[in-house]
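Sequence of Ribosomal-protein-serine acetyltransferase (Pedobacter steynii).
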Amino acid sequence: MKINIDENITLELIAAQHATGLYAVIEGNRTHFAEFLAWGDNAESLENFNNYIRNCELQYQQGNDINFVILLDEKPVGKMGLHYINTYNKSAEIGYWLGKKEEGKGIITKSCKGLISYGFTELGLNRIEIKAAESNVRSLAIPKKLNFTKEGILRQADLVNGKFLDLVLYSMLNEEWKS
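Predicted 3D structure, token representation.
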């Protein structure tokens, strides 16, 4: 499955073929990612990352998560997905990461728009959330640009590299997105 965002950006359903390229992005950005992302053992080696991708594929088959590789000019530059899909409540959460050299180009904002449209139109979701660390200024800018509603702070909700982070919770409802 692919979601074409524009002439240069595509979201492609994550698969084994993406492991090496995505892992290279992680390897080249470990310091950049370390402040806000807890990789656990998922990214300690290419073998572990391949296992992570197999788990992503399983989560997709079970309808729990949909993970995409962000491709810029057909080259992996990051990852994005709809997580914690709740079919009963028709809700999900968007998560994303992007290599440092690709930041500031509108890639995540544009990709979120495509993923949000997919979630509301194709999956029939009613609510999509974005959570970001209170100190992650770049990530917090995304839901603001997309006119999400800030709902509050989830205190010490994310443990990243031994440090608890407060998360800001934003949401968008289908009816709001349509208008």
